[in-house]
Specification:
This protein has 111 residues and is an alpha+beta fold. It has three helices and five strands. The radius of gyration is 20 Å and the shape is globular.
């Protein structure tokens, strides 16, 4: 019986430690923008050029197979989700989803 209590206590401590470790991981600063109409690197280059013009954007990567643009911010910066969404629209495409440190959006963000 004593052994069972010790095992239960140990399991509880491990679970608490694991959940505490997860809580300390900061969210990723990368913003992923899903653009279903992206068919090739030509499409990606048009969008990347517009995204680079958004204040706070450090770098942009395209994943044509996943139809996603990945935006990395400049150190200490937080690009506007609305600005990123509108940059895709300015390039002539329609974003389907934007996921980043500011939240997830399925329509144009308000800020």
């Amino acid at each position: 019986m004593m052994r069972n209590r010790m095992m239960a206590s140990l399991a509880l401590l491990v679970a608490i430690g694991l959940s505490a470790g997860r809580a300390q991981n900061p969210p990723s600063p990368v913003t992923a923008i899903t653009v279903p109409d992206m068919h090739c690197m030509g499409c990606a280059k048009k969008m990347a050029a517009q995204l680079q013009a958004v204040p706070g954007v450090g770098s942009v990567q395209a994943n044509v197979q996943a139809t996603a643009m990945l935006v990395n911010p400049k150190p200490g910066a937080a690009p506007s989700p609305r600005g990123l969404w509108e940059a895709i629209e300015k390039a002539g495409y329609k974003p389907a989803r934007l996921d980043g440190p500011s939240g997830s959006f399925a329509s144009k963000p308000q800020s």
